[in-house]
Amino acid sequence: MRRLFDFIDRRAERAVRQVAHQHGRRSLLTRLGVALVGGAVLPMLPFDRSGQFGSAHAAGAHGGGAKGGAKVDPHNDPMQCEYWRYCAFDGNLCTCCGGTLTQCPPGTEASKVSWVGTCMNPNDGRSYLVSYNDCCGKGSCGNCLCNNNERERPGYRLGVHNDINWCMANTSSMFHCTTSVIVGVA
Ligand code: ABN
User: Fold this and answer.
1) SS3 for 93?
2) For residue 136, how far is its CA from the centre of ligand 1 (angstroms)?
3) pLDDT in tens, 89-115
4) Residues with Cβ < 8 Å from 85, sequence gap 6 or more?
5) Nearest CA to ligand 1 atom 6
6) Is ligand 1 within 6 A of the CB of residue 83?
């Protein structure tokens, strides 16, 4: 009987030691430390404040807009042709083609030459100079084809003419989509 009790004692002691080892003060302190450091560092991480991805939705072939959920004002939705920056835009929205408002999709590069537009931001009532760059190196993306022509001029005013393939000066002249970069207040 005594040996049985000894055996049970030893097993119980081993089990308790194992639990104490796994969930001891040190491991509690480690977890607390991770939580504290994580909580302090997380807010410092960079994140996109542009609002471009605030409305997570996919657009259809011609800029379908929000799918379900709250409707986004098209003038503030970079995935729709009516977005304010696109007032002199001609091409496929890079935001619908794996790129962003200002960045070409992977595997393409910005055109070396571009055209500009002057667009009014309805949120602050100011006009901005917008540079439109075609993204080159892949065939047309096919999504969200938009053609807006505010203050657009024929080819004899080349810098404000949107109806040509601006990839012509790049190594590959294949046109994929177009970005819209704000370059200044007009
Ligand atoms: N600038 C956009 C574009 C590309 C190819 C053909 C016409 C217009």
Assistant:
1) strand
2) 11
3) 999 999 999 999 999 999 999 999 999
4) 78, 101, 119, 121, 128, 130, 180, 182
5) 165
6) no
Q: d(Cα 165, Cα 169) in Å, to the nearest integer?
A: 9
Which one, of 161, 170, 172, 177, lies nearest residue 59 by Cα?
Answer: 177
Q: Is the separation of the CB atoms in 91 and 175 below 8 Å? A: yes
Got the DSSP string for 53-68? TTS-----TT-----S
pLDDT in tens, 155-170: 999 999 999 999 999 9
176 CA distance to ligand 1 middle (Å): 9
CA-to-CA separations, 68 to 45, 57, 65, 81, 144, in angstroms, rounded:
30, 9, 9, 19, 18
Centre of ligand 1 from the C-alpha of residue 48, in Å: 29
73 is catalytic: no
| 63 Cβ below 6 A of ligand 1 | no
Whole-model pTM: value is 0.66
What are the tokens at 79? 């995935």
Active site residue 134: yes
